[in-house]
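FORM 7B: Structural annotation worksheet

SECTION A. Query
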Amino acid sequence: MLTRIALGFLMLLLAVPVAGAASFDCGKASTAFERAICEFPELSRQDEILAKAYATALGGLSKKATAIVQKGQREWLAFAERACTDDAQPQEEAYDQDDFNCLGQLFSNRIAWLEESRMRSGRRIYQVHRYLVIPDPDATEDSWNKVAVKEFSSPRIDGTDAEAVAFNAMMDKFTVKPGDFAGPADAEIDPDTDATTDNQIKVSVAEVTSRRVSLNINDWWYGHGAAHGNYTITYFHFLTQESRALVASDIFAGEAWKKPLKELVLAELNRTIEGGIWPESVDDIDEYVTETRRWNFSERGLIVQFQPYEVTAYAFGAPPVTIPWDALNQYLAASGNEIVYSY
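SECTION B. Predicted structure
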């Protein structure tokens, strides 16, 4: 079940059943899934919030975008009814406490993803979702994870102008083949055939300016039987005027920036990580600092993102470092300042 492998998250569900508190008439609940929503107050409350989040997510969308979001909601309902079972089929018997906890996380995830559907700097953003539940062929009667659960979400711009068309085409490519933008670790994941791994990939809009749409890509996966899950945090920057992805030469001129950036990043990593980074990781910094999928921008400086296990132990998470623009201004390309500081 999903919550058995999700980053330590268990939703607190009250044990006193009530009726009629959900977003639908509980007197007409006919399936174990519907009865589960009605029987536990916290899950009923989540269902009401979900209904409001869904209605809000539809507000102001074009007819085409509305149809896409509606289709996603229908697919999510079918997914939620099967994701907390042992065979990826709708459950007939009453849900137990683990099942309720699993449903709680599904509802929480869905609400958060629907909340990404909103206006951002004059652009109407909405999310496209994909879901998959498949039996784990290696599962036994005693296995904790008997199904593989996969959730994917990526943004679209509701519009027909050149910017929206180009941006949406890139996002469509990402939806078809996870890993195109998120890095080598994700490219190994095939959501349609890998039945022994849970995956959750959320691509969300981090910032919208006059020059770029910056995306945050959170990719989490758990191989059944592993001690814990793993994840990556990466970025994708869409240049609105050029209708394409950002490349390093948009920010930095020539090649002279690479060595000083490596030295600055290495110094900051060693300053912020207790005991410093792994010595064997030093040579990899050359490659890491040039990858735009690791870059994010702040007023203070260039953020360079590292992943778990790359430079230090898993307990340190995915460490980012920020290099002040004052230390990098001399290396910026003519377009660099405009892209970085645009509003």
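SECTION C. Observations
The mean pLDDT is 87. The radius of gyration is 22 Å.

SECTION D. Sign-off
Analyst initials: ____
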